[in-house]
Design a protein that fits this description.
Layout (H helix, E strand, L loop, with lengths): L1 E6 L2 E3 L5 E9 L3 E11 L6 E6 L5 E3 L7 E6 L4 E6 L8 E11 L2 E6 L3 E5 L2
Parallel strand pairs: 2-11
Antiparallel strand pairs: 1-3, 3-8, 4-5, 4-9, 5-6, 7-8, 9-10, 9-11
């Protein structure tokens, strides 16, 4: 059994910064492939924010380009999302996502969600 555990959400003023972390853990040996962050605002569909491959190739939704940075530490099976110049419209529940191979099976996993609120 593999799980993703997020941390780092909170309340921040417009223009501020937050950093989200998401660590994969499990009892058996596993390999983490593509990792990403999604978000869901109240009354809206969940949307992709950013992804990063095992080799570090990144992709961002247009609305966060230049403000958010996704990175990963493969030695810690952890993905990060550095969020700068935050705007009220960035307020959402942020979910970590990853494709993980464990016991010869590759599955898609979700974190529990981290609330990010941008408000003055």
């Amino acid at each position: 059994q593999v799980q993703l555990v997020e941390s780092g959400g909170g309340l921040v003023q417009p223009g501020g910064s937050l950093r989200l972390s998401c660590a994969a853990s499990g009892r058996s040996t596993f390999t983490v492939h593509v990792m990403g962050w999604y978000r869901q605002a109240p009354g809206k569909q969940r949307e992709l924010v950013a992804t990063i491959t095992e080799s570090g190739i990144t992709n961002y939704v247009d609305s966060v380009k230049g403000r958010f940075t996704i990175s990963r530490d493969n030695t810690k099976n952890t993905v990060y999302l550095q969020m700068n110049s935050l705007k009220p419209e960035d307020t959402a529940l942020y979910y970590c996502n990853a494709d993980i191979t464990a016991q010869f099976s590759t599955l898609n996993y979700w974190g529990q969600g981290a609330q990010v609120t941008v408000s003055s």
